[in-house]
Amino acid sequence: MFQPGPRHFLFRMLLAAICCVAGTHACGREIESRHSSPDSVKAVEVLSAGEGLVEDLPLQGGGFQRVLYTAARRETKGIIVMFPGGTGEIDIEKSGQVKNAKNFVVRSDDLWRDQGYGIVLVDALGHQSMRGQRSSAAYAEVTKKIIEFAHRQANVPVWVLGTSQGSIAAMNAASHAGGSSLAGLILTESVSILGGSHETVFDAHPDDVRVPSLVVANVDDRCKVAPPSMAQSIAQSIRHAPAAVLTVSGGAQRTQDECGSLTPHGYYGIEGKVVDGIADWMQKTQNRP
Length: 289
Known about the structure:
2 domains; 8-stranded mixed sheet; AB_hydrolase_fold; Rossmann fold; Alpha/beta hydrolase family protein; 8 strands
């Protein structure tokens, strides 16, 4: 067995010193990449270096809404406001790092930006669970401020996209968006059956949506509150705007929670296919006369 000699030991110490002289930030990135979970390491690496613009949007009555904007990597076609599922707590830090990076809307950030879309990630209000609040009139007012922020980043169409519980927020945003502030609405694996949050996309006023809408459903989704069989009903509830259904299949199961991010419900393993399908619909929608 190889035993390191004094020279080898001194060489290793010298390398460590050089690393730390170069900056603790560089050393920290190496440590972070080693200890991050394999499932989220790509998204964490993308956003951990402080990439993008973090802004705390002031709210009426106090408090703030934290958002993170990352620009497209090519000519910008549009900006997508992303509402995550679950509690909504993705924990955006001031540096731009997203601590809870497993959610589909975070994992797919790179893919969207490569397609030419800027991304606005929306964190939970006050770092508290958003369950039960997303369909409220008060939260609709918050979404208006988020959409205004998105429009300030570039003179391009703005879309809203929600996944799972986040689809409730996206529906609420679209149903309260005034005039031509939105180009369209995208709902992915939407909560349509009452569960622990005591609200569904049907509580977020789909009858008031006036923008082209897409409902995405994975036939392999086993989340009880977001069955793919409800996709047509969701689309039909959007009565005053064109609504389409995109059906996908596949995905890996990495957790026992059928409604978790690392499952077919969260498009784990099929992110590229899903993003391509949605982007194709978006492009066709924008090209309509």
